Amino acid sequence: MDSPPLPSSSRVHISSETTTRTAPPRNNPLLPTPTELVLLSIYPALLLFGTLFAVLSPDVSASTYDPLTQSHDQGSLAPSYFARKNNLFNVLFVKRGWGWITFSFFLFVFTHPALRTTAQKSRATVRWAVVTAWWVFVTQWFFGPAIIDRGFRFTGGKCQVKMAEIAEADVEDIGVKEVFTAAACKSAGGRWSGGHDISGHVFLLVLGSCFLLQEVGWVVGRWVRYVKEERSVVMPDGAVRRAIVEVDRAERYRQEQEGTARRSVLEALGHGGKVAIAVVGLCAWMLLMTAIYFHTWFEKSTMAASPDKMPLKPPLPTNLPSLVKTAFTNAVASKDVNFYPTQVTILNVNSIPFQLRFSPSLANKPKAPVPVVNISHSAPQAPKKEFFNPFAAPLPQMLITAVGSPPSHNLVLNKFAIVPEHFILSTVSFKQQTDLLEADDLAAAWACIDAYKQERKELYVFFNSGGHSGASQPHRHLQLLPVENMRDGLGEGEWDVLAKGFLDQDIRERLPFKVFAAGIEETKGDGEGLRRVYLELYNLACEAVLGKDAGVQTEGEARISYNLAMTMTTMVVVPRLAEGGVVRDENGQEVGKLALNGTVLAGTALVKSQAEWDALRGDPDQVREVLGRIGLPNRAKI
């Protein structure tokens, strides 16, 4: 039987003269082919471009890098949507990356006409299984902890568990074996510290996209005859041979006979190939975003992260709300704490429910003497009453608990309480109220908030700094109010802490004064992370008050008056230009003054006279006008 004619591209013309045909040299089986080398060079190019962009971009370089999250992510202050770890591409694509890679790979394998036989599909599946096993071994499980976790431990890393937990149990009790992996460490309430921690996201993006390029690229490239080269392999006998690409020869021959073999790459990809290339493109884009917004250059170039040892939140008693309640009840009974009952009403300020309280007995509150510096020596001075510092050595009946080991702060009751269980976080050693807050101040405050959260309660923290802020004591202290008690006298759902909504632009725009707010959940209570957010907000406030030439301040005495507020999710700074404003009755006569401190960020105010109470209830617009004068005016929506 005659054999069918060979395809025209394969015909050999024989002449009477001897002709020597030289085959193209084989590629080294241990090295990438020229095409593979070009594709592989894309990865370091992306990392280099991303790093240069991060250095040269004013938005990125102005945003503080946070080693806690290994990113420029600063909540609402993030330099880009992609700098946030909760962006949809990160949540829906990167965190489920191997699922997308697997889906696109099998869609290509089972739909592309170049892979028609069961043997071809089986070999492709085996290759996928090998690469998937490698991904699992590195990131998920390797006969116990994954290679990532083992490498971290072998390079000196460890899981830091909260000191409070260690104090309550022996090391064996907290289960060292159970915190061998990153996931277990996180669930145990600790954090990886030290060591060398491979970046799982970079590993996934590079491995997955490279695998898809290999599987789709070689098949489609050879099928449409755009790629001439082939990989070489070492045979069992040691000989080097060209690998046979997964293309159905019979199908190719049929197409050549019909004249349809040559087609565009886009057509040759098919539906599965197009999906696979889209996944590769997303991998490249997210790798670029990682290069710009996440990790340092060393971490990115080695596909690893090496976070410094980071402080955890200070230990606090697990029953802090109960301790505060008991201490307050006992101190009121012994008259060590003066509690002033109030009346309350809700005023509408630009569609924001604003709480106004009235406490006539508070007008008789004794005032602490102001320290006076003697600058004249020409005449003898009358003896001055010594300035009383209630935080220097708290009385036992006022002290709730010490914070830290050794103690850096004390939790003490507020001597003059309007809200039940009002307590204070003060530094053990004297530090100026007007100086910028430190990392341990913010970490201790957040630890108190978290302790209340564990009991399904809320805590509002505020700080007054400067002459216009409502500050009354020079010894550094933050004030803490149980939100449940701030609602005393109000119906359910009638009022909530205003600061909790400041991440909503609509609420910020309705305020009569300008605020600067950011989310703090990503910090997980770490003092350094909280302080970075605090400094971002404080410096934005300084720039708004002093102008763009204000510069960046990180230490020393604050240059402006301001209030700070903290909830579990939000930190807020408001620059202050005045402590308050006058209150007038219906005849326009001045009857008092509305003074505001950090509770203004919760949406509360306090008056001490009946005339003020009546005037503000009768004309709530006065509250809005005063609010518009205490800080930078805002173009509030009415």
Structure, described:
The longest helix has 29 residues, at 265-293. Strand 4 (232-234) and strand 5 (240-242) form a beta hairpin. The strands form seven sheets. The protein has an eight-stranded antiparallel β-sheet with strand order 10-11-13-15-14-17-18-16. A three-stranded mixed β-sheet has the order 8-9-21. It has 638 residues and is an alpha+beta fold. Helix 16 crosses helix 19. The chain has 21 helices and 21 strands. It has two domains: 24-57 and 89-157 and 194-304, no CATH class; 322-363 and 390-629, 2-Layer Sandwich (HIT family, subunit A), CATH 3.30.428.
Q: In a nutshell, what does this entry contain?
A:
The chain is of the alpha+beta class. Helix content is 38%, strand content 15%. The chain is elongated, with a radius of gyration of 34 Å.
Query: Could you say how many structural domains there are in total?
Result: 2
State the distance separating the first and last CA atoms.
Answer: 94 Å
Q: Low-confidence parts lasting 5 or more residues at pLDDT below 50?
A: 1-21, 160-180, 302-311, 370-379
The fold-level CATH name of the largest domain is: HIT family, subunit A
Q: Tell me the radius of gyration.
A: 34 Å
Helix content: 25-40%
Shape: elongated
- Overall mean pLDDT: 78
Largest sheet: 8 strands, antiparallel
> How many distinct helices?
21
Order of strands across the main sheet:
10-11-13-15-14-17-18-16
The CATH architecture classification of the largest domain is 2-Layer Sandwich
Give the number of DSSP strands.
21
Class of secondary structure makeup: alpha+beta
